[in-house]
Amino acid sequence: MASSNAKPATAEHELVAASASGDFAKFTAEKEPLLTRIHHFFHRYPTAAPAIVLMMAILVFTSIVGERFLHPFNMSLIVQQVTIIGILGIAQTLIILTAGIDLSVGAIMVLTSVIMGRFGVEFGLPPVLALGLGLFAGALAGYINGLLVTLFRLPPFIVTLGTWNIFFALNLWYSGSQTIRSQAIDAAAPILHWTGQSIELFGARLTYGSLMMLVLFVIVWYALNWTAWGRHVYATGDDPAAARLAGIRTDKILRSVYIVAGFFCAVAAWALIGRIGSVSPQAGMMANLDSITAVVIGGCSLFGGRGSIFGTLIGALVVGVFRNGLALSGVDVLWQDFTVGLLIIIAVGLDQWIRKV
Amino acid sequence: MTTDTQKIVLKASGLVKRYGHVTAIDGAEFELREGEILAVIGDNGAGKSSLIKALSGALVPDAGEILLDGEPVHFKSPMDARKAGIETVYQNLAVSPSLDIADNLFLGREKLKPGILGKVFKMLDRKAMHDEAKAKLSELGLLTIQNIHQAVETLSGGQRQGVAVARSAAFAKHVVIMDEPTAALGVKESRRVLNLIKDVRDRGLSVVLISHNMPHVFEVADRIHIHRLGQRVAVVKPDTHSMSDAVAIMTGAMDPNDHPAGAFAA
To answer: TM segments (chain A) (predicted)?
Structure first.
């Protein structure tokens, strides 16, 4: 009865509609030129490029340095060397996926290592509690970053540039610029050295810190790819307005990301104490930039929403392999920095190309 | 006569929204009937966007009342409107370019795996979401295949619009609001989207279509709500008013009451 559908006026349009081709919104796979296919391959698998670079680097250095380079002991040494940057890289990846950047990761790490050290050694708190307090302080520091970013709408670069200085100053003040010696930690809070202990496996020496890093990568991979939270992190970095319209509370996501990142910085602090033995307020000065390097070489886009967590692990390993391989080849240290710089520029250039689909 | 007995799904009366001393909605009325396509037209700055935002929860009106199925509703966010069964396709599409089609369809309402995997580990049920996404897209004739894992940014404008429309049609229980769905599309793609809009109506949903494209409006709309200076000035039908009548009313060149069919012909 209520036949508002049948209007004579539409008839001629319907004829046109019938003759129109129906191939709108068909997702067909057409034959494409090789370069386009490569392009799409990298677009779909952003980890592929750094993985190829890593494999080629290992091949090249094996042919230059020989057996010594491929020896399990040397391989595990590389993993040990990238452990701290790897864990900070997890934090940095999460932030960069939201189109942010965190310059304060190194400062949070040093500050929390001092907190762990002082509470465990000087105040004689139960070591586990000291560790827990340090982890909590890391999450709190991240929360402060997140609040400044979401509440005052400040660019993450500026916020973390500020908190980098603030956290670093607090670290110098709180530590009194004093190093806590390794023996003191062993005596009072040996748990802080747990990350430095290692197990032997086929001639490789893996520290618990390195194993912890690998486990954390798997956990974060799961969270990013198999939970709604992870999808929302990507959507927030990709297009925050679209994410909000889809019902995602982007500010809440951002704050959670900064909290998790701060927590991981504190975990990195634990790994740092295990690796260098003592607690030094001067340690990890370059760590923030190194973590960004690992993320960028790992194929994460600085514009957000694009990249994979294992890319960062590979990115950190690429840096580790280049530094180790060049050192074993007897090349001057300055060329290590030179190479890393080249890698960064190539990686970002590649990302720009990949994003143009 | 018969149309008057049709159930009213969404109704707004006396809506007011001011931004400072600019009045965007000035006591506007709105009425959407069950299973119809209601076009909303108006000149730039007439306040139709604000009206639509109020209906979709994107803004909270200063005064007035919105009734959904006769019950008063107070949307504080687009999420509230979605929960009540009102889905909106935004002009800027509101899709996440780097996520794939299925992820986009379920963005903000992901499905979790049953049992402990979902409850404790919050694990997404990706297979179920992909299967359902495929089903929804083919139901709307949008999917001849295949790669539901394709990132949305690799799709054409029409395909993206298809994803956005499919998302709203798939989840809407009452109303689908479409803001300029054909604005960025070519002729063929517009055609498919228009057919899609009719499909959505024929599935029993009520559709609000905001468009500047008069031929499109006159082709698919059952009734046309004409907005001017923050108010509804006329509701017409494609067979009572011509396109030039509608444009004249919309721009103020014609007093709607001067038209032989009257200002509220529908």
So the answer is: 47-65, 77-97, 128-148, 154-174, 206-224, 253-273, 294-322, 334-354
ipTM value of the model? 0.81
The model's pTM: 0.85
- N- to C-terminal Cα distance for chain B? 10
Residue A234 φ/ψ region, left for φ over 0, alpha for ψ in the -120 to 50 degree band, beta for the rest: alpha
Q: Which residue from A4, A29, A234 is facing B222, i.e. has the nearest CB?
A: A4
Q: Which residues contact A300 (CB under 8 A, 6 or more apart)?
A: A46, A93, A96, A97, A306, A307, A308, A311, A312, A315
Break chain A into its structural domains and give their ranges: 46-355
Chain segment B135-169, per-residue pLDDT in tens? 888 877 766 545 778 888 888 777 788 888 888 88
Count Cβ–Cβ pairs < 8 Å, chain A vs chain B: 141
User: Chain A closest CA to B255's CA: distance in Å?
Assistant: 24
Query: Average pLDDT for consecutive 10-residue bins of chain A (357 residues)?
Result: 43 50 49 80 84 92 91 93 96 97 96 95 92 98 97 95 96 93 91 92 90 97 96 95 88 97 98 94 88 94 92 95 92 90 89 77
Scanning chain A, the segments in alpha helix (DSSP H) are 11-19, 34-44, 48-65, 67-70, 72-97, 105-117, 127-151, 156-175, 182-188, 208-226, 228-238, 240-245, 250-276, 287-297, 309-328, 333-355
The helix/strand/coil state of A99 is coil
Residues of chain B with C-beta less than 8 angstroms from the C-beta of A96: none
Scored b (16 or more CB within 10 A) or e, B129-161 reads bbebbbebbeebebbeeeebebbbbbbeebbbb
CATH number for the region A46-355 comes to 1.10.3470
Q: For B9-50, what is each residue's pLDDT tens digit? A: 999 999 999 988 888 899 999 999 999 999 999 988 888 888
**pLDDT value of position A109:** 97
**Residue in A with minimal Cα distance to B107:** A246
pLDDT of residue B5: 59
Helix axes A309-328, A208-226, angle to 10 degrees: 150
Q: Cβ distance B187 to B217 under 8 Å?
A: no
Q: How far is A183 from chain B (nearest CA, A)?
A: 41
Checking phi first, is residue B45 left (phi over 0); if not, alpha (psi -120 to 50) or beta? left
For A230, A307, A310, B123, B188, the CA distances from A221, given in Å and listed in that order, are: 9, 11, 7, 12, 41
A24, A26, A219, A229, best to mutate vs chain B, most B CBs in 10 Å: A24
Which residue is it, tokens 């019902």?
A247
Q: Which residues pair with A89 in a beta bridge?
A: none
Q: Which domains does chain B have, with CATH numbers?
A: 2-92+172-258 (3.40.50.300)
pLDDT computed for residue A328 by the predictor? 92
